[in-house]
Structures are given as structure tokens and as C-alpha cells.
């Protein structure tokens, strides 16, 4: 299945500004993207990055900003991204860009054909198994809710299904699916629900991650601290 | 399968003190418990409440404190809890009480026999389907992680598996399972991961709940508010 992965290449993850500088946020966002792309491929999907600007633009920033100067990791990342990955550039807002890309898929092109999935780029806990549950679920519209009322991923088999990421999007998407008479299913996955937006979310990556994003956080000095009953994320200097 | 449900009957859910008074917290905790018990039965399990004091003690408090004076709801709740439910009273700390109850199950009694599951009482989003995935998963130890490094539910088929709920318990439980040579599995469920501890967690119940706890929050005046990009829970007076 074709899987669209929206990616904010410019100034991503602003809610991590208290623990990561702008260059680090760009690097970490890209590392999470690489994890997601790898899992999509392993789940049998064909990823298409829907980026706000060309990725090679960002790659230079990444080389400058990597806090650990881990060159082999960077080469690995660049290699995985350069190997024939389709990148669509659309600098419009997320809702507009996703709806346009989904519509293109249903028109049928050389690059795209329905059904189509959309998976967010900030899901470093997404495993091939969790993504297979999404891609293989029955339903004309299949939603994977995110924590906080969001929609972290979906599959659409109905050309008239549209998204709106403002507000409590999962409610709107349920309503949109019903309004077009599409059969609706939801995937009950903690891994797909765990989008990484703020410091608290980093705890999930540290405790449950096993790949690039997890390794990146460890190399950047992040660790889990327990102080009495409280569990927090701290960063060593 | 026998399913132990630990329940803190006295002063539960203290992290909800900013939005619920003590009587409301007791009532809401009990409503969540009722949702969990009902789902366990529907999933084919036999629940045993492991309470810090007798439930009827608490029931009086509930009658006094219900903010909505919804008598039929209370009767319904009392009825569902009185219908032959096994209640084990153990006022020791959670870790000690759970380990003792699990050990009893492996000794084999009239009430209990292995394998045994433990499911927390503050999981109002747990559905029969999500619990069936837990109960039916292969593995001598099956863990359902909670958000924040916790362990919201598990199944044990190994008499020597023990728990420790302090700190980042999911890590300790993985380690404990490995140290006794047990095969380990994890259930990837957002619903089982969503324990309700603080105000932010109420959002999940409002957006994804469909039963008593959801209804209780609505009747108590809680709703989701979106202000700009932020989604929060508010309570009307």
C-alpha cells in the first residue's frame, strides 16, 4: 500500500524547545522519520514523504547540528533516505497538503494508487507489526488515534474521505467517515498512539524504543530518572 | 482465566484532586472499576477485586457523594458489584498485595487457578477486545505497558514471576521475566495503556470512552475544549 508520511522539515517539534536546540530538533525529527520509513517498508508499505521543503535542504542542517558527531549514523540515515525514496514537496498547511496527496492517490498515477495510508513522521515506536495491523485492518476508513484527541495514522479506501487536523481531529474523522457512509474501524495500538511532541513523550521512546530515535536520545544524554514516585526525563550535560 | 483487579478503596486518584473532591474521586474510581469488571467478564475472564478495604464500606460513601444524584446509575453499579463478585481485602501496599494474590493463584485454591492475570482498576477504556488480546496472547509472561513506564496489566503462566510497581515498572518486569527464563510478550494496546491518573487523562476518556466512566464525566460537567491549537478538559459549574 502507498503510505504518505507528512514531514515538517522546517523548525519541527517546537514543543521540545526546552530540551533541544533548533538544530537538534531538526536532527531528532529526521531520525524519527527514518524509523517510521523503515517500519513502513518492513510492513510491506511504499512510503512517500510529504515534506514542507526538499529533504536535502535539511540534510545539510543535520550534518552541522548533530550533537554527537556520529558520522556513521548520519551516513546510514542519508543512505536510507536517498535510496529511491519518493519525496513530494508541498509547503501548504498539513490538512491541505494531506488532502491533496490523498486525492492524487485516488486519481491514480504512476506513483500512487488507492487504497492509501497516511502515517505521521513522529511515531518512532511504530513497529512493522503495529503498522501491519493498520494496513491490514478491514474498513473503508481505518483510524489510529493519537494521545490527546489526535489522529496519528489512517487508511482510506474511500475517495471522498477528507481530513482536518485542527482541534480534536479523531472526532472529526469519525464524523467525516460516517457522513460519507464509509465503514469505520480503529486500530488499538499504543505504539501508533505515541506521537512525540513534548518532553514527557521522550520517556516513551526511552522506555519502549529500540531503534534510531532511542539511540539518538541516549547519545544526546537523555535518560529516565525516578525520584520518589515520579518518573521523569533528564539530560546530562 | 482468573483476573485480579487491585483497587485502592480509600482516598483514590489523588492526582485528580484539582478537579474532583474526595467523594467524587471515590465515586469516579468505583465507576472506572465497574467498567473494567464488566469488560473482564465480557472477555471471558473471572474478576477478583483485590481491595484495600471492603467495598461495601466504600459504597456508603459513594451514595453520599455522587455529584449527580443519579440513583438508577448507583443501583446499577451496586447491582453489578454485588452479583457474586469475589473481593479479597488486603491493606498492604500494591506490590506486596499483588504478589501475594498471584502466589495464592499458583498454589491452586477453589477460588483461583493458574494462569492468572492482573488488570488495574483505572482502565476505563479497556474493552473486551483489548482484554482478550491480553488474555489470549502467547507468552509465559505477557505485559501490557502503561503510559509513563508503568505496567497496567499482565498475565503470568510462571509461578515464580513477581512484580514491583515502584519506579519504571515495565523495565523491572521485563527483567524479572527474563531472569526466571520465562518467554515474554507485550500487548500493543492504547486502551490498556491509558490509565487514568490526572486531568490530562480525562481527555482520553471523554474522546474514546463509551461507558460508565465516560457518562459520569459528562454528567459531572466535564468536556473537551479546544482553544487555538490546544485541547484541554474543562468543567462547567
Automatic annotation (TrEMBL), chains A, B:
<keyword id="KW-0808">Transferase</keyword>
<dbReference type="Pfam" id="PF01983">
    <property type="entry name" value="CofC"/>
</dbReference>
<keyword id="KW-0548">Nucleotidyltransferase</keyword>
<dbReference type="InterPro" id="IPR029044">
    <property type="entry name" value="Nucleotide-diphossugar_trans"/>
</dbReference>
<keyword id="KW-0547">Nucleotide-binding</keyword>
<comment type="similarity">
    <text>Belongs to the CofC family.</text>
</comment>
<dbReference type="GO" id="GO:0043814">
    <property type="term" value="F:phospholactate guanylyltransferase activity"/>
</dbReference>
<dbReference type="GO" id="GO:0005525">
    <property type="term" value="F:GTP binding"/>
</dbReference>
<keyword id="KW-0342">GTP-binding</keyword>
<dbReference type="GO" id="GO:0052645">
    <property type="term" value="P:F420-0 metabolic process"/>
</dbReference>
<comment type="subunit">
    <text>Homodimer.</text>
</comment>
<dbReference type="InterPro" id="IPR002835">
    <property type="entry name" value="CofC"/>
</dbReference>
<comment type="pathway">
    <text>Cofactor biosynthesis; coenzyme F420 biosynthesis.</text>
</comment>
<comment type="function">
    <text>Guanylyltransferase that catalyzes the activation of (2S)-2-phospholactate (2-PL) as (2S)-lactyl-2-diphospho-5'-guanosine, via the condensation of 2-PL with GTP. It is involved in the biosynthesis of coenzyme F420, a hydride carrier cofactor.</text>
</comment>
<protein>
    <recommendedName>
        <fullName>2-phospho-L-lactate guanylyltransferase</fullName>
        <ecNumber>2.7.7.68</ecNumber>
    </recommendedName>
</protein>
